[in-house]
Amino acid sequence: MDNNKDRATEILKRLKKKYPDAKVALFYDNLFQLLVAVILSAQCTDKRVNLVTKNLFKKYKTVKDFANSRLNELEQDIRSTGFFRNKAKNIKGSASIILEKFSGEVPKTMDELLTLPGVARKTANIVLGNGFGIIEGIAVDTHVIRISNLLGLTKNSDPVKIERDLMKLIPRSDWTLFSLLIQSLGREICVARKPNHAICPLKDICPSANQ
Fold first, then answer.
1. 138/160 Cα distance (integer angstroms)
2. In angstroms, what CA-CA distances link 109 with 85, 145, 147?
3. Under 8 Å between Cβ of 117 and 111
4. Residues 80-102: pLDDT tens digits?
5. Rounded to the nearest 10 degrees, what angle do helices 31-40 and 46-59 cross at?
6. Model pLDDT for residues 118-166, shown as the tens digit of each residue
């Protein structure tokens, strides 16, 4: 590859072929459930989040249910996702703000989403891109941080700087999809403990595969 832009174009092409049905791995039936699931996914696997939300969304069916929840009870309901005190406080706080300021509807702009507790650009991008079909940026999670560095698409470790680097390389129309493709690769092949270079569709264009 002559440069990062060429490599990014080829990466997209190959991953689209490898994962034609890439989508959010979190289970949800509405936008607030998506928001809750993404908040819970911080420092936690999607598989664990889905196990927790299976019962959580049966117990708390509406935004109002979460807003009116007892904090200590909500903490125990999500305990196994880790950092449960902060997550519970953020979920309950977000539900209250959504009820009070946004008529019970999850807001659909980046600026409004960022006013919710526990919501940074990653969470907002996932909700906007996958929930509303609004493309504002690239969701930079742990998979994207690690793999975009391995692929030589960035040299940064800060999510905001990584997002900025990637937005220069990836066509805007593919920003939401790019994260989903990288996450699929990270879960199946480019696992953190031991990337399986032998079966990776990017092995010949990935700088780390030849180290």
1. 10
2. 27, 24, 28
3. no
4. 999 999 999 999 999 999 999 99
5. 130
6. 999 999 999 999 999 999 999 999 999 999 999 999 999 999 999 999 9
Under 8 Å between Cβ of 122 and 141: yes
Are 37 and 126 within 8 A, CB to CB?
Answer: no
CB atoms within 10 A of CB 43: 10
pLDDT the model gives residue 89: 98
pTM, two decimal places: 0.94
User: Residue 208 burial by CB count (10 A; 0-12/13-18/19+): exposed, middle or buried?
Assistant: middle
Rounded CA gap, 43 and 37, in Å? 12
Q: Which three-class secondary structure string do you get for the chain?
A: CCCHHHHHHHHHHHHHHHCCCCCCCCCCCCHHHHHHHHHHCCCCCHHHHHHHHHHHHHHCCCHHHHHCCCHHHHHHHCHHHCCHHHHHHHHHHHHHHHHHHCCCCCCCCHHHHCCCCCCCHHHHHHHHHHHHCCCCCCCCCHHHHHHHHHCCCCCCCCHHHHHHHHHHHCCHHHHHHHHHHHHHHHHHCCCCCCCCHHHCCCCCCCHHHHC
List the catalytic residues: 122, 141
